[in-house]
Amino acid sequence: MNAAVENVTILPISRFNSPNLNTIKSAFKSYKKSKRILMIEDDPDMSSLISRSLKQKYSCTIDIAQDPFEAMNFMTEKFYDLIILDWQLPALNGAETLVQAEKGLRLEPALPIQWDRQRVPVVIFSSSKKNECTPRKTKHFNYVGFVSKAQPLGSILESFGSYMEDETTYRFGTA
Fold this sequence. Notes:
The chain has a single domain (35-170), classed as Response regulator (Rossmann fold), CATH 3.40.50. It contains six helices and five strands, in the order ααβαβαβαββα. It has helices spanning 3-6, 19-30, 44-58, 68-77, 94-107, 153-165, and strands at 36-40, 61-65, 82-86, 120-126, 141-148. It has a five-stranded parallel β-sheet with strand order 2-1-3-4-5, sandwiched between helices. The model is unreliable at 171-175 (pLDDT under 50).
């Protein structure tokens, strides 16, 4: 028998079920990655207020783009767990923003790999009626919901929170 093998100490199974190890196991199970959100909103007061509130309550990371072109730049650098999209943006509306972002993502050679593996959930945020905000189906984006601006701030935050807490929002199919 090899000398290195002879010096191996075998620990009894009971050592692995110690209270400290169980505490560590439960800590790892309860750990959740901080969600990364891209908010595309041209109203700086609105985006600041919502961003600050969501960060405080959900410990998420939020990048704010004030126009579609800034949003597209963010998307080429990072992958997001959720996109909050104002439907009435300057230059391009929400549908046009997603279509142009889709085109840009297909052409970007140094794209984060997740963009080719998963579709990002998109929540439309608008003062328009829900039936006026219909995004086209794309390879990289998955429309999951609508939040109206025509409601109290608490309701808006609660609506966004429901998308952030709902783990099925983040179980999107591969592209």
